[in-house]
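Email to the structure team, subject: Histidinol dehydrogenase model.

Hi all, the expression group asked for a predicted structure before they design truncation constructs. Nothing fancy, just the tokens so they can compare against earlier work. One-line instruction: predict Histidinol dehydrogenase, return tokens.
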Amino acid sequence: MSNPLTVRFTGPLRSLPAAARREIVERARAQEDVAVTKVVGQILARVKNEGDAALVALARELDRADLTKLEVPREALEEARDGLDPDVRRALERTRANLETVHGAFIPRVIEIESEPGILVGRRPDPLAAVGVYAPGGRAAYPSSVLMGVVPARVAGVPEIVVCSPPGKNGLPSQVVLAAAAIGGATRVFAIGGAQAIAALAFGTETVPRVDRIVGPGNAYVAEAKRQIAGNVGIDAPAGPSEILVIGDDTANPEHVARELAAQAEHDPEASCVALVVGDGLAAQVTEALTRVVVDRGEVVSASLGSRGAVLSIESLEEAWPFAADYAAEHLMLLVREPQAALAKVRHAGTVFLGDGSSVAFGDYMTGANHVLPTAGAGRSFSGLSTLDFVRFTTYQTVTREAAARMAGDVAVLAEAEGLRNHAAAAAAFGGAK
Ligand SMILES: NC(=O)c1ccc[n+]([C@@H]2O[C@H](COP(=O)([O-])OP(=O)(O)OC[C@H]3O[C@@H](n4cnc5c(N)ncnc54)[C@H](O)[C@@H]3O)[C@@H](O)[C@H]2O)c1
Ligand SMILES: N[C@H](CO)Cc1c[nH]c[nH+]1
Ligand SMILES: [Zn+2]
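Reply from the structure team: attached below.
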């Protein structure tokens, strides 16, 4: 590593100046960056107005790729899958199977309930007709993210699943991303990245179909593009640069804490990685371990930890819970003596990892939980990606003649109170009044 690794915030949490605490908790700066907002606004307008021509031009400008075709032919997907290293294929198929098991169990079912005798109300989940899945591909290729989006969509019954991922210099997303799209069951794949991919899926172009919902993680440009098009098309949670909050008591292994921070930091210089551990001694051990455990991508890890990282000591776990609720981490890791009891204290988190066996890397790749999760505090109001993102609900009701007769009077009372006498008349007619 060329730069020595430093962590931006260290020391006791209770001594942290209010401004520093705010800076850690409000790590949304990149998405609110006016420059990003402006650039993304311009990209969306170009794609909306110029369609495919803008996509080809933006691929040249931003991805340094000369595209002859935007859509990746089906044969190229199948060739990528068939040519994949057998170990990688087996691992991707294992991820797919676990996602199918977990997301199949989480799928919402039809619910029917009688609110009164003779009045049946139902709610039926209906799969969306077409969805877009963004798979990042700038600093790293993300075949795992392809599966995290495509598999739950397929399990939910979506017939058209369109994947977009940035092209490399050869004009195609990486082979392993293409293979994952085939393994997951994507119906179409386009070599389009960044904000322009989100625009193409939201507005449609000559070759890219307009979809009903766009999901998937990405960098600050992708997250901002999803935010800006949210009025036109459904989106999942804002899933931007990765983040982790590790909470550890005296049973936490400092090297494990450090490795978890380094793992999420390697995604992006804008990743936010924070540890709150009981005792100044343990905090110092974590900071020291960080200088030893980084095995790759040192520049990215250093940039992330140096600009946003925090290793803070607390006196007891009780100090951690209000901070954790405020921070609403994408990944919350509980390296504590009684993780299940600690889980009961958690208010906001994308997903939680309990105990010393549960590295976030397992959830990132294989447990079957989804790794597309709300970031930048969005965990206070959003959940991680699931089959719920791929359905909408149709409610329905049926009222028997007898129930209609019993209800018509009170409905007329409310309709009269609103000055809507035709409603009262309709209810009375169905209730059997002459
Ligand atoms: N929250 C989650 O669930 C989750 C899951 C996986 C990955 N991630 C995050 O996804 C992100 C992946 O980012 P990435 O950069 O590797 O890939 P990416 O595909 O998100 O972004 C690459 C694209 O960004 C665009 N871009 C780059 N610089 C630009 C500029 N100056 N102006 C306009 N557009 C520009 C380009 O179009 C490029 O194709 C990381 O931040 C990672 O932490 C998050
Ligand atoms: N940690 C990422 C979500 O923030 C997901 C991921 C994909 N590959 C490895 N990790
Ligand atoms: Zn990860």
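Residues 400-430 form one domain. The chain has three domains: 9-25+240-383, 34-106+126-236, 400-430. Ping us if the truncation boundaries need rechecking.
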